[in-house]
Specification:
The chain contains 3 helices and 6 strands. With about 160 residues, it is α+β, with helices and mostly antiparallel strands. The structure holds tetrahydrodeoxyuridine (THU).
Length: about 160
């Protein structure tokens, strides 16, 4: 037998000021989108912004429902919206901001497991890594160069045949 070691590299930025202007713009879109979340049940607001290869930016936020499981995370709202409007446009970058309503959250909030699986679907579809930035709503930002860093050994379409 042998062990295979899987390593993840996570970048940490002290503030938005350290990001490239295009990525700073994207995280600002996520911060703004967060404020329009429909989250009356959790009072946890999440905003997401996706940059496509054609440089268009698509936003999303979490959409909750009185029938709780019917709700959807911000990341998936943005990615599904992007895919519905531009089905052939690769996703280059995803930015996420999350915090409880009315509070300051300095701790970066990573995408949930289901969102990681959906992000992996898009990387696999376009055969292109997606850079992912995530933060609270103030302070430091974390980033990974691919969903592989957050979801190693991902299941994908190639296993189905
Ligand atoms: N949520 C997201 O929008 N993205 C995540 O990655 C984690 C959780 C939302 C779902 C729900 O509306 C609220 O945050 C609390 O879980």
């Amino acid at each position: 037998m042998f062990y295979k070691q899987i390593k993840s590299k996570v970048q940490v930025f002290n503030s938005i000021g350290e990001l490239e202007p295009k990525d700073a713009e994207l995280i600002h879109k996520a911060l703004a989108a967060r404020l329009d979340a429909h989250s009356p049940y959790s009072d946890f607001q999440v905003g997401a912004a996706v940059r496509l290869a054609n440089n268009d930016i698509i936003i999303g936020n979490n959409q909750e429902n009185s029938s709780y499981p019917a709700g959807l995370c911000a990341e998936r709202v943005a990615l599904f919206y992007a895919s519905a409007v531009y089905p052939e446009e690769p996703v280059k970058t995803l930015a996420v901001s999350a915090a409880p309503k009315g509070q300051t959250n300095l701790q970066p909030v990573p995408p949930c497991g289901s969102c990681r699986q959906v992000i992996a679907e898009f990387e696999h579809k376009f055969k292109m890594p997606i850079k992912i930035y995530f933060m609270g709503n103030s302070g430091s930002i974390m980033a990974v160069n691919s969903i592989e860093c957050l979801l190693p050994l991902a299941f994908n379409k190639s296993f189905l045949r």
